[in-house]
Write a structure and sequence with these properties.
Strand order of the largest sheet: 2-10-9-8-5-3-4
CATH architecture of the largest domain: 3-Layer(aba) Sandwich
Shape: globular
Strand content: 5-15%
CATH class of the largest domain: Alpha Beta
Structural class: alpha/beta
Order of helices and strands: HHEHHEHEHEEEEEEEHHHEEHEEH
Bound molecules: pyridoxal-5'-phosphate
CATH topology of the largest domain: Aspartate Aminotransferase, domain 2
Number of strands: 14
Length: 417
Amino acid sequence: MSAGPARPDLQTAADPRPAAGLQSLAGLEPSANLQPAADRRLADARAQRRVFNFSPGPAALPTEVLERAAGEMLDWRGLGVSVMEISHRSKAFIAVAEQAEADLRSLLRVPQHYKVLFMQGGAIGQNAIVPLNLMAPFQRASYLISGQWSARSAKEAARYGEVAVVADSRDAQGSFRGVTPQSQWRVNPQSSYLHLCLNETIDGVAFDAPIERGSASHQVPPEMPVVADVSSTLLSEPLEVERFGLLYGGAQKNIGPAGLSFVIVREDLLGKAHRHCPSAFDYQTVSEHASMYNTPPTFAIYLAGLVFDWLLRQGGLAAIAEVNRAKAALLYHAIDNSSLYLNRVEPAYRSRMNVVFFLRNASLDEAFLAESLDAGLFALKGHRVVGGMRASIYNAMPLAGVHALVDFMRDFERRHG
Ligand SMILES: Cc1ncc(COP(=O)(O)O)c(C=O)c1O
């Protein structure tokens, strides 16, 4: 194989100078021999403004958290390496994972008889991992279909056992605009668990009514564990963990980077996995190894730990919930009081995390997206299945970001409406 021309972005042993590509990763500190181009790049990077990021996920992370991670990237705790470059079995990393778990427990007041597991495979992975662990003894589970994600969860679970649909909230047009009230559910009592999604990220539909327990056909038998996908709502407000047997989700909304998934599971639900369940996905095995049965996503756990610490310093979940309620109220009020914008979700089921809205004149969609981007408002395009716009306003979105969006929307309506 010929050596070929030297690639400018690769450092060779003979040339100890940082190459240009590596330079930009190395904390943006230019070395003397790469001036003045590197100086210019450094100045540009520092002058860069952060936009208001409405991405549904992977989503915005608190700027303070990113700054701290950037500051620690090359030399973490004086070790001369980044946290990504050390063993997950080192004392230093185990301390990071333990602190992250302790802070998550403290934020959510997780009772002692629940395990917190850090896993991989995302929420879609959990759509299979949950039935593989919990489908026994009935080989059947009940699913409430309240949006695109719970529909997908039910479909995946059907690969592992029978799925009994409790209710399907789709309207005549196939859209999700609310959640079927429990009085209209039909719960198969011979189900190993009931699965719900508390916040449907694509449809902007949320649901947090207490579950009625009992033996009537719409009630959930007292012993049946409730499993909830909380990918896009966990840590946005207080949640009573004890109402659930298991909570799961991907981290990439309110928790940290993609690649990490979390499970909070009541102890008595461990140890029931199907014999074909991969060991790395058996909750009992993961729990016995303190989420280190195999190499966990260490950087994502570290970053989630920084987010938990940030949340605690904001005053915890009650404090962030107040900000989240104010942000959602501001945006829905602006939509409801406009003649251009429209939200179709029944008010009682409107998500406080993902606000889906449409322009009554859809021919303005492209202009709206282009102009909003110019105004520093990023990622407002709705999900391809639903169309329109979606503003995801997770914890890291400040109230100022929603004010900026509402101001832009009013200005756009004035000019185009
Ligand atoms: C509610 C919900 N469930 C499941 C998923 C899928 O998550 P993942 O991509 O981590 O598998 C998402 C992703 O946006 C989601 O919002």
